[in-house]
Design a protein that fits this description.
The complex is a heterotrimer of chains A (364), B (254) and C (77). Chain A has 14 helices and 14 strands. With 364 residues, chain A is an alpha/beta fold. In chain A, β10, α10 and β11 form a beta-alpha-beta unit. Chain C has a single domain, classed as Alpha-Beta Plaits (2-Layer Sandwich), CATH 3.30.70.20. Classes of the chains: A alpha/beta (364), B alpha/beta (254), C alpha+beta (77).
Chain lengths: 364, 254, 77
C-alpha cells in the first residue's frame, strides 16, 4: 500500500470520498478551508456534489435534506461554524438521520482564535443543541487515525442513524503526515435505508420529521433514541491503553493531539524509572467510563491526570468516572497554546510531590 | 519648510496612526480613509460606533479612533439595530465584505434595511472571500477562478453573482442605496461623496443607508494591485453598474 | 509650489500612486523599508502640480501633499 504525505484537512476529505461520501456541503472557516477546497477539486472527478452554502446554518439544513435521501453526506467546519449547525444537528438526531460532521476545533469562545483547541468537548458530547440526544464522537490523534475514524464515522452514522462527529483540532487539520487509504475497503453489512424519502412510487409515503405534538408519542421517540445510545455505550466504546501496567503511579487521560504530548512525557519519564500510563479515549461519546474507573481504582494509582487544550471539559467526565475513588487533577492550556511536554512533566512531578490542589485535599 | 507651507491632503484624524494588515494595494485602505475623512468633516468621531465584520475587515476596530463592536459573521446589521435603537443619538455604521453581507448575513441586512434602521452600511464588494484564502463569494464573477471554484464559477451550478444594491433597492421602505468604486481617482472622489451623503442621511435621522463599494483583492485574484484595478473596470463594473439606486426622496411605488 | 511627502513607515510599495500620477514623477525606490517593502518615492519633485491624485489612491494614507505659498482647492473632495 502506498503512503502519501498529506495535510490533515485533505486526508480527511479523501477518506470521506473513499467511504463513499461524495456529497459535501460547507462554508469556509479557518482552519479547515483545505477540506472544502480539496472537495471542490475532487468531487467533480468522482461524480459527487460540492455546494458552498451561504452559511453554516444553511449547511446543516442542506445536510438534513441530503441525508434524508439516504446518501452518505458530510460537512466540515470549525467551532463557531459548528455552533451554527446545532439546531440542524438536533433536528437530524430527532429525525434519526445519519450524517457525519467534522469539527476542526479552534480557540473560543466567540470569534476566539484560529489556533487549535479542545474546547468543544462539551458542545460535541453533551449535545450543543436542544433536546435529549447525543452525537457519537470520534477523536483522532494522528492523521492516519483521522483517515480511519472518518471512514468509520460513516459506517457508524449509518448503523445508528445518528449524527456522528469527528472531533479534530487545528493541528490535525493543518499538519502533514504520511497516510494510507485502504485498498479494498469493506464494511460490515448495514441494513438497507428503507426510511429514505426517495419517492413513494410502489410503497407507502415516508415522512421524515421530528415533530410529535402528542406527548406520549414524543416520549416514545425519545425512548427509542435513548435505547440507541445505550447500544452505543455497550458496543462502540473505543480507547487506547498506552504503557498501562501495574507500576503506573499516575493514570493520564487525554485525547486527540494532547495524547501525543502525553505519550512523549510518559516515554521520557520511563527513562527516569517513573511509570505513568495513558488511557486515550477514541470515542468521546460513548466515553470509556468503566475502563477509566477500572484503571483508577488499582492500588498503584496515586492520581488521575487529565490534560486538555481547554479550561477543563473532559475532566468532568473523568471525575464522574472515577467517582472520588482517587484524586483527579487537570492540566490545560487554552487560547491556541499547545502545552509542551516539559510543562506537563513539571505538573506530574508536582502531583507526585503532593503539591497540587486535588492530591493535597485528598490526602488531608 | 517655511511658514507658508500648508498641508492640503493629510491622513485623517479618525484613521489611527497604525500600519494596517491589509495587503499592499488592497482598496480596504482607501475605503477606511474615506470613512475616516467623512467622520472628521462632520465632526462626529466622538459619537460614532462602528460594527465590524468577519473577513479581512475584522481588524477594522484597530484602525478607527472610534468605539467599535465585533459582530459574528454576517450579524453586524443586527448588532447595529440593537445599538442604534437603544442609543439613537449615536452614529452607527457597519463595515462588511461580500461573505459577511451577501452570504451569511443576507437575512440581517435585508431586514435591517426593510425596517428602515437608521444606520449606515459600507459594503465592500471584491468578488471573493479574501481573509479565508480566496474562496468563491456570492459576488464572484462567472468564470472567475477561486479556491472553491477551481474550474471557474459555473453559473449552471452556482447561479449568477448577487447584485446587492439592486436587491435592497426593491424594498418599499425609504433608504439611500448607491454603488460606487474606488479604482480610479475620479471614482474615489464620487465614492467619498456617496459615503458623505450616507452619513448625512443618518445625522439627519432620515433612513437606512448603504454604499456598495467595488473593490480589489490583488492577493485573492492573483494580480498586481494595478492589474486588479483594471480587472475591476473590465470585469466587475459592467456587471455591477455604478450609480444611485434609491434615495428616501424618490420612494419605490409598492 | 506643491510637494508630496511619502511616509515610508506606512508605504507598502503597492505602486498605485506611481501609475496614477499624471505627471509621472513617482517611482519605486530601490531601498527596502523597515517593513520589507520597496517604497514609492518622488523622483522629480519640481514637476509636482499638487493634484493630490497620489494621496487619493493611496490605501495606506501614507501621502501628505503640501503647498508652499497660496492655499488652493482644485476640486470638491
Amino acid at each position: 500500500m502506498t503512503r502519501i504525505l498529506m495535510k490533515g484537512n485533505e486526508a480527511i476529505a479523501e477518506a470521506a470520498i473513499r467511504a463513499g461520501a461524495i456529497y459535501y456541503f460547507a462554508y469556509p472557516i479557518t482552519p479547515q478551508n483545505e477540506v472544502g477546497e480539496y472537495m471542490a477539486k475532487r468531487l467533480p472527478e468522482v461524480g459527487g456534489v460540492f455546494v458552498q452554502a451561504e452559511s453554516e446554518v444553511a449547511v446543516g439544513n442542506m445536510l438534513f435534506g441530503a441525508a434524508a435521501s439516504g446518501k452518505r453526506v458530510f460537512t466540515s467546519s470549525s467551532s463557531p461554524g459548528i455552533s451554527l449547525m446545532q439546531e440542524a444537528i438536533s433536528y437530524m438526531a430527532g429525525a434519526r438521520l445519519p450524517v457525519v460532521l467534522v469539527n476542526i476545533m479552534r480557540g473560543g469562545p466567540g470569534l476566539g482564535g484560529i489556533l487549535p483547541s479542545q474546547a468543544d468537548y462539551f458542545q460535541a458530547t453533551k449535545g450543543g443543541g436542544h433536546g435529549d440526544y447525543r452525537v457519537l464522537v470520534l477523536a483522532p490523534s494522528t492523521l492516519q487515525e483521522a483517515v480511519d475514524l472518518t471512514m468509520l464515522a460513516f459506517h457508524l452514522a449509518d448503523k445508528y442513524c445518528n449524527p456522528t462527529m469527528v472531533l479534530a483540532d487545528g493541528m490535525i487539520g493543518q499538519m502533514m503526515e504520511p497516510v494510507e487509504f485502504p485498498k479494498n475497503y469493506a464494511e460490515e453489512p448495514l441494513p438497507p435505508k428503507n426510511w429514505a424519502t426517495t419517492g413513494c412510487q410502489g410503497r407507502d409515503p415516508i415522512i421524515i420529521k421530528s415533530l410529535a405534538l402528542d406527548p406520549v408519542e414524543l416520549e416514545k421517540n425519545n425512548i427509542v433514541l435513548a435505547e440507541k445510545y445505550k447500544l452505543m455505550k455497550r458496543d462502540e466504546v473505543r480507547f487506547e491503553a498506552y504503557k498501562i501496567n501495574p507500576k503506573n503511579r499516575i493514570l493520564m487521560v487525554s485525547y486527540g493531539t494532547m495524547a501525543r504530548i502525553c505519550q512523549t512525557v510518559i516515554d521520557e519519564l520511563e527513562q527516569e524509572d517513573i511509570s505513568i500510563g495513558l488511557l486515550r479515549p477514541i470515542t468521546l461519546f460513548p466515553f470509556p467510563t468503566k475502563e477509566i474507573l477500572a484503571e483508577a481504582v488499582k492500588p498503584n494509582i496515586e492520581a488521575v491526570l487529565t490534560v486538555e487544550m481547554s479550561m477543563g471539559q473532559m475532566v468532568e467526565d473523568v471525575e464522574v468516572a472515577v467517582r472520588d475513588k482517587k484524586p483527579v487533577e487537570f492540566y490545560g492550556r487554552t487560547g491556541g497554546i499547545v502545552p509542551t511536554p516539559e510543562e506537563v512533566r513539571d505538573y506530574i512531578m508536582k502531583i507526585l510531590a503532593r503539591e497540587t490542589p486535588a492530591v493535597r485535599s485528598w490526602n488531608g | 519648510m517655511n511658514e507658508s507651507t500648508h498641508a492640503i491632503f493629510t491622513r485623517p484624524q479618525s484613521f489611527r496612526d497604525v500600519v494596517t494588515h491589509y495587503c499592499p494595494g488592497c482598496t480596504h485602505g482607501i475605503i477606511h480613509r474615506l470613512v475616516a475623512e467623512v467622520l472628521d468633516e462632520f465632526g462626529i468621531r466622538g459619537r460614532t460606533v462602528g460594527v465590524g465584520p468577519v473577513g479581512c475587515g475584522v481588524f477594522i476596530y484597530n484602525y478607527f479612533q472610534t468605539d467599535f463592536l465585533e459582530a459574528p459573521h454576517g450579524r453586524a446589521p443586527a448588532l447595529a439595530t440593537g445599538l442604534k435603537r437603544v442609543h439613537p443619538e449615536l452614529i452607527v455604521f457597519t463595515y462588511q465584505g461580500d461573505g459577511d453581507l451577501a452570504s451569511i448575513g443576507t437575512a440581517e441586512i435585508i431586514h435591517a434595511a426593510n425596517r428602515g434602521e437608521k444606520f449606515t452600511t459600507i459594503f465592500v464588494n471584491n468578488a471573493i472571500y479574501g481573509m479565508t484564502g480566496g474562496q468563491m463569494a456570492p459576488t464572484t464573477m462567472p468564470g472567475q477562478i477561486t479556491t472553491t471554484s477551481p474550474r471557474g464559477r459555473n453559473v449552471e451550478e452556482c447561479g449568477y453573482p448577487i447584485r446587492v444594491a439592486e436587491l435592497l433597492s426593491t424594498l418599499r421602505t425609504p433608504a439611500y442605496i448607491e454603488r460606487v468604486a474606488v479604482h480610479t481617482p475620479q471614482n474615489i472622489i464620487r465614492a467619498k461623496k456617496a459615503i458623505r451623503k450616507a452619513f448625512r442621511y443618518q445625522i439627519d435621522n432620515k433612513c437606512f443607508s448603504l454604499v456598495e463599494v467595488l473593490s480589489t483583492c490583488p492577493t485573492g485574484w492573483g494580480l498586481t494591485p494595478n492589474e486588479s484595478l483594471k480587472w475591476l473596470e473590465d470585469t466587475m463594473q459592467p456587471y455591477y453598474p455604478l450609480g444611485c439606486f434609491k434615495t428616501p426622496e424618490n420612494e419605490v411605488k409598492a | 509650489m506643491p510637494g508630496v511627502i511619502i511616509d515610508k513607515g506606512y508605504c507598502k510599495g503597492c505602486e498605485l500612486c506611481v501609475k496614477a500620477c499624471p505627471q509621472q514623477i513617482l517611482s519605486m525606490s530601490k531601498e527596502i523599508t523597515n517593513r520589507g517593502y520597496f517604497s514609492a518615492q518622488v523622483h522629480d519633485p519640481s514637476r509636482c502640480i499638487g493634484c493630490q491624485i497620489c494621496a487619493l489612491v493611496c490605501p495606506d494614507a501614507a501621502i501628505t501633499v503640501v503647498t508652499h505659498g497660496q492655499r488652493y482647492v482644485l476640486y470638491d473632495y
